[in-house]
Amino acid sequence: MSTDAGPGPDPTGPTGPAGAARTQSQHDDDALGELGYKPELRRTLGNFHTFAAGISYISILTGTFQLFYFGVAFGGPAYWWSWPMVFVGQLMVALCFCELAARFPVAGSIYNWAKKMGGPHVGWLGGWMMMTATMVTLSAVALAYQITLPQIDDWFQFVGDGSGENDAAANAVLLGSVLILFSTAINAFGVKLMARINSSGVFIELIAAVALIIFLAAHITRGPSTVLTDTYGLGGDRTLGYFGAFLTASLASAYVMYGFDTASSLGEESHDPSRNAPRAILRALVASFIIGGLILLFALMAVKDLAAEELSTVGLQFVVLDTLGSTIGEIFLWCVVVAISVCVLAVQAAGIRLMFAMARDNNLPAGSVLAKVSPRFKTPVVPSVVIGVIGVVILVININQPQIFSVITSIAVIMIYLAYLMVTLPMLVQRLRGKWQPAEGKFSLGRWGLPVNIAAVLWGAAMSLNLAWPRAEVYNATGAQHWYLRWGAFVFIGVVAVGGFAYYWFVQRHRTGVLEEHRAVVTDEPPAASR
């Protein structure tokens, strides 16, 4: 009797793993076609890749090491409470984004979501604000090299010895430009290479962050009750007392916890994005909150002198080197360098997809050029180059005008919060009109949708106002006082929004529409049956 049971199931058949993958990919492409676009970008990203994109944009090590000093300077150690406050507010926004990511898994998520919720005009303005802010953010993150590398070794101070008036600013431009050029090349060569480098960097960042928490915990010298109630006596000269000081210090947390939407902006290059993107958004935000909160808390509990002046000038770099010693401290600072690098990669990747999405709708000048996808790399190469060049140009402003640059970078964060608001507010209107329907069988807030959406809108409006408030210590901290710096948020955002929208209204609006080469192919309807 033969023991041959015959051939096993074909792995490439419809029930095999390869067949299932093809079926899922076809389903993803069909969902994109329903939005009016044909699939052009290569679907290569898995669960961890999308999670890594979101968490690397937030980049806990970059943000905490870059802004810790600011929070302590204006709110004392008790500024830590702004971290959970910002998390709760941003969680409301993220939950709304999860519903949108499940229903509209498309590149340039903020632009497309604003367009779907509020119409083409709101969509264009939201996309324009987000794109402008992303290019400035790219430059701001690249500047973080200057805060970290010279702390590791003086060799990285290539311009002068650091004591000159513009030595630090010029060196920051040099280091930042090299990083942006590297990021531009990687992003241009395809999403798979970018994702591999980004995921590897995020893995290193997460391991380093957990290790840093453990090392700091081993050096604790005081309890949390001491840290979380120490205000340095700040706020006595303010109308709102310490609450006013706390609102200023909260900017250190608000400047970090955003960009989680990047996980969904790569939707056209991800497998099963309608399910994976919402998970990636929440995981990135929650992981960032837990890890970042513990790093900040244990750093304040471990530093030898809680009243040390360096806490409000040098920041977290001082705590690491002073507490852990130069050798271990420098190892962690190198991990911060890795975190900064992958953060720049993620910021630029998000900006590229946003520019591509707007250009594909012919909503930018030279749209057909900007939306062209490289047949070899399956990546929009021109947006990579354009964003990289603009990022370097913005950096150059920092050489002789660091005060103006700091104003612009602060304003960029406000513009991102406003772009988020241009999604959540129209979404709330849709809910109130009974027109919003989550994707069937995918992520849904259910009966919690309305209260969460209301909270997201209130939070976005309140934090945007707090970020834009004309504080001298934020917008005109040094040098002569100028009204245009103090009110820079309102002036700059007004110019960008009004000027950009005027161009759109009078010029680009009349040309808008999905470009023919990017439009989904509509199959002819079957002929009617003869009678």
UniProtKB/TrEMBL annotation:
Q: Does the entry feature the keyword Acyltransferase, yes or no?
A: no
Which residues span the membrane?
48-69, 81-102, 122-148, 168-190, 202-220, 240-260, 281-303, 331-356, 377-399, 405-429, 450-469, 484-506
Q: What is its main location?
A: membrane
> In the record, what terms sit under GO molecular function?
transmembrane transporter activity
Q: Which GO terms describe its cellular component?
A: membrane
Q: Name one Pfam family in it.
A: AA_permease_2
Q: Which UniProt keywords apply?
A: Membrane, Transmembrane, Transmembrane helix, Transport
Q: Which InterPro entries match?
A: AA/rel_permease1 (IPR002293)
Q: Does the keyword Transmembrane helix apply?
A: yes
Where is it localised?
Membrane
Membrane topology value: Multi-pass membrane protein
Gene3D superfamilies given in the database record:
Amino acid/polyamine transporter I
- Segments for region (Disordered): 1-26
Q: Which PANTHER family match?
A: AMINO-ACID PERMEASE BAT1, OS04G0435100 PROTEIN
User: In its UniProt entry, what is this protein called?
Assistant: Amino acid permease
Query: Which species does the entry assign this protein to?
Result: Streptomyces lunaelactis
